[in-house]
From TrEMBL:
Homodimer. The keyword Lipid metabolism does not apply. One of its GO terms (biological process) is adenine salvage. GO terms for molecular function: adenine phosphoribosyltransferase activity. The gene is apt. InterPro entries: Ade_phspho_trans (IPR005764), Adenine_PRTase (IPR050120), PRTase-like (IPR029057), PRTase_dom (IPR000836). Pathway: Purine metabolism; AMP biosynthesis via salvage pathway; AMP from adenine: step 1/1. This is Adenine phosphoribosyltransferase. Its EC number is 2.4.2.7. Its main location: cytoplasm. One of its GO terms (cellular component) is cytoplasm. It holds the Pfam family Pribosyltran.
């Protein structure tokens, strides 16, 4: 099955000039969703990489991150928008393709000896994943890999995370 066929493109959302990649058709199709998860799991099992924790960004990253944490028998650490977590947090600000924002993570969510897979649904400008990796590193844990379902290479996001092992299932070029 061609997974990219299950991604809907929405013009001018959430702002003028943005071609938003909507993953909900992929999620709604049980075979496509299963294949998506299975392909990511297979990639990391083949490489022999072990993760203690999976860190994912609110909100679409939670969908893939929590499932992958389950599949890898790892813990799951959510990155939330400011003010959403109840305990002491560390914070990282970032810019995306269309906004400026911040993430927070519980200060005690990761330990220095832990290895982490950072997961999101898409990499566009790279700001979200760069901020996630910085939070992991600030905790003392190690980023073993960064994974997305979709890559938009024309926005240059991979450049911001080039020091990390990166994997995506498929990409869309400009205008697709």
């Amino acid at each position: 099955m061609e997974l990219r066929e299950h991604i809907r493109t929405i013009s001018d959302f959430p702002k003028q000039g943005v071609l938003f990649k909507d993953i909900t058709p992929l999620l709604a199709n049980k075979k496509a969703f299963r294949q998506c998860v299975d392909e990511i799991v297979e990639h990391y099992l083949t490489k022999g990489i072990h993760f203690d924790k999976v860190v994912s960004a609110e909100s679409r990253g939670f969908i893939f991150g929590s499932v992958l944490a389950y599949e890898f028998h790892a813990g799951f650490v959510p990155l939330r928008k400011p003010g959403k977590l109840p305990c002491s947090c560390i914070r990282e600000e970032f810019k995306t393709e269309y906004s400026t924002d911040a993430f927070e993570m519980h200060a005690d969510a990761l330990r220095p000896e832990e290895s982490v897979l950072v997961v999101d649904d898409i990499i566009a400008s790279g700001g979200t994943l760069e901020a996630a990796a910085r939070l992991v590193e600030r905790s003392g844990a190690k980023v073993e890999g960064i994974c997305c379902v979709i890559e938009l290479p024309f926005l240059g996001g991979k450049e911001k995370i080039k020091k990390y092992d990166f994997f995506s299932l498929f990409s869309f070029e400009k205008g697709e």
